[in-house]
Amino acid sequence: PTKGVDQLLRSFLALPSGRAELRIAGKGEPEYEANLKKMTKERADVQWLGFMPPEEFFKAVDVLVVPSLWQDPAPMVVLEAMGNGVPVLGARRGGIPELVGEAGWVFDPDKPGDLEAHLRRCLGDPAEVKVMSQRARERAKLFSSENMLSSYLRIYESLLKESAR
């Protein structure tokens, strides 16, 4: 439930059938997952993929939706998506907005209809999605191991210089 999949489903099901496909990867608590699947039994445009290798999943999606309801500090899936050129539509929770930056969109899970409006925006403007895909690839470079390590080293060096004074 903290992943927000039920909110994503309600928002997607409010869209006209056949406008897009929703592919849900991963596993959840069996009872919760079964209840979610009941919500979509009449919709062929919702696919339950279970676990699959990330590189396969990202090849199969145009936008990754991260509808977390908890204050997720730094979900790796956001960085993985951007590294694969997949823009992110993420919840305004925890570190998600900071990771997404200008390489996607952020919605407020406490604002009714906000996720649905953003889904409609993505569907209505494929050119914007394409631009965000390019931005995602570029933004992912900021979080490369090399960049992260170099940032940590700069911070440690400045702290060492400061403590030596």
Key features?
165 residues; alpha/beta; 8 helices
Report on the architecture of this protein.
The protein is of the alpha/beta class. Helix content is 52%, strand content 12%. It is built from 8 helices and 5 strands. The protein has a 3-stranded parallel beta sheet with strand order 3-4-5, with helices on both faces. Strands 1-2 form a two-stranded parallel sheet.
Quick structural gist:
The chain has about 160 residues and is of the alpha/beta class. About 50% of the residues lie in helices and about 10% in strands.
User: What's the pLDDT, averaged over the residues?
Assistant: 94
Mind summarizing the main beta sheet? 3 strands, parallel
Helices and strands, in N-to-C order? HEHEHEHEHEHHH
Global geometry: elongated
* Count of DSSP H/I helices: 8
The helix-and-strand class reads: alpha/beta
N- and C-termini, Cα separation? 51 Å
Percent range for β-strand residues: 5-15%
Radius of gyration: 18 Å
Helix content: 40-55%
pLDDT under 50 segments (min length 5)? none
In total, how many beta strands? Answer: 5
The main sheet orders its strands as 3-4-5
Question: How are the SSEs placed, and which strands pair?
Answer:
Elements: H1 5-13, E1 22-25, H2 30-39, E2 46-50, H3 54-59, E3 64-66, H4 76-83, E4 88-91, H5 96-100, E5 104-107, H6 114-124, H7 126-142, H8 145-164
